[in-house]
Each structure stands twice: as structure tokens, then as C-alpha cells.
Amino acid sequence: MVDVLDYRDMPFSTELTVNVDIVKTIYNHSTDIKTRTFPLAGSGDASLLFIDGMVNESLLDVHVLAPLLHARTDKPQIDFAYICSIVTTSQLTIVTSFEDLLKSPSL
Questions:
Q1: Which of 6, 46, 59, 81 is at 20 to 30 A from 93, Cα to Cα?
Q2: What residues contact 23, with CB distance under 8 A and at least 6 apart?
């Protein structure tokens, strides 16, 4: 079993795939952890991570994924405030560190 404390103070990598792999490692590569990676206008790729069975994927598609896929492309970079303004759910948790992730009740 992985000791999650090994990751608590680790900063996010600039490589999205590295971060996703670490999250999967923290959760012991559970098949319940689902990942959706997609292009985010002006910012490269992004990933949504969620627990299968705890999230209605149809609602996720409509209220989170669709707004992000249709984000304005005239912005040079998408920031968290903009993401929160276009996503139509109150249950979104944006984490910016592994410490935040490990504290989050959402994942």
C-alpha cells in the first residue's frame, strides 16, 4: 500500500500525465477512479478525476465537461476563476496541490 504522506508535500508537476499517474498511485490504481482528459482552450490539456458510482456522468458531461470544452478561446490562458464562472455545478473542487487533493472530501 502507498503511504500518502509521501505525496503530501510534493508540488504538482508541470506535466499533467505525471500528476494523473500520482493520483492513480495514491488511490492504488483503483478502477473506481475515473479520468477524463481533454483540451482546454488556451491552456493545453486538463483532466477531470472522479469516483465512479459517486458521480452522475451525464451531469458531469453537461455541467462540467461541456462548458470547459466550449470555453472562450480568446483568453490566452484559462484560470480557476474563469473555470468556476462557466461550470454550472456547486460541487466542483479545484485542487492545486497534492495536499489539497488529500484533504478533499470530493475525491
A1: 6
A2: 33, 49, 101, 107
